Amino acid sequence: MLSLNISGLENGVVLDHIPAGKSMEIYKYLDLGSLDCQVAIIKNASSKKMGKKDIIKISGGLDQVDLDIIGFINHHITCNIIKDGHVVEKRQLHHPKKLTNVIRCKNPRCITSIEQELPHVFFLADTKTKTYRCKYCEEKYSFK
Amino acid sequence: MPRHLLNPMDFSVEELDKLMDLAGDIERNPDKYAHACDRKILATCFYEPSTRTRLSFESAMYHLGGHVLGFSSANSSSAAKGESVSDTIRMIGCYADICAMRHPKEGAPLVASEKAEIPVINAGDGGHQHPTQTLTDLLTIRSTKGHLDHQTIGLCGDLKFGRTVHSLIEALSRYEGMHFVLISPPELRVPEYITDLLKEKNIPFEEVISLDEAMPQLDILYMTRVQRERFFNEEDYIRMKDFYILNNDKMALAKEDMIVMHPLPRVNEIALEVDSDPRALYFKQAQYGMYIRMALILTLLEVEV
Ligand SMILES: [Zn+2]
Predict the structure, then answer these.
(1) N or C terminus of chain B with fewer C-beta within 10 Å?
(2) CATH 3.40.50.1370: does it fit domain A12-92?
(3) Predicted ipTM?
């Protein structure tokens, strides 16, 4: 089988086991477009576990990427920290305490629905139930 | 950074005690405070009309010797031209020393406070919070009963949508020896997060349907209005609004020192005959509302008298 070769990463992070086709979504959530480091996106890589998967490799930039957002989006994505060409850490992803412009408040009575350029901010209100609430109207975020 | 009041729980129990002590002193010695806010200006930014709340704030400021400016509906303000809350509060900060904001959108006063260089008081933001109402209720109880703890309080009417009820329960849940009797039709019971809160704190409560049966044990009865706009269908509204009407017969079942409270305006849930009962405190409540707003303005402006 033909496989695309992306040169090895010296320092950075590899996001593995992204469901196939979802890598661009992750790219947007992490705002990778705004970083000046190298980013490689591999689509439809073969996976024993998943059949097909996406992978994102980010060179450097570890301090500029809020990896916890991935913990919010999808727990199953693995996050390998690479130093000197080796995996030094499989990062445990936590639910972030705060999400800015990741999800939008759907409450039509919320000030975020009319105020110009107001960021949509959610905070983790309950760590047990993983409930996020809008900072402004305190409505629960529902994934439906 | 100025201090704001956005949520009834923004003040700790100790801070609330101080605030209510101040309100009590204002009630006893109004002359002492008559010039406390000389040359200070309160802006009342009301993006939706609420005459009762606005008058209470204005009266509070005038009693402190201060001045008031503002608007009382969105059409008469820059909001009609599409100005954001963030921009409006920056302008208001140039004209006034403190701002009371009422807004139909939830979280608007928080947005204002993030951009404001003056204290912002949430004077009601949609169905979200109305902290000065809660403070008024607390002061009314404390001033007439002498203390906030160890009370059996009955809350009656629309407990599902009644924001004032939820905030009051949360605020009172911080005191010891409380017992809540939640009196409502099954359809209008308090939301689960309120009963969860009470369970978590091991605070005894009952959910009952009959006002008559609940009456004898109550120290406080808090009546609420069943709002027409909460119902999609007129029949449901008509059936429920008459569910609980307080009259002299029901008052006869109550303790002699029970107090009746109501956030006003009432529709018909309290018969007029109850008004002359000395236990009816709902008009006096408006006076406490002014005292607590005076104390709040002084506290947020850090004026020492
Ligand atoms: Zn919201």
Answers:
(1) N
(2) no
(3) 0.87
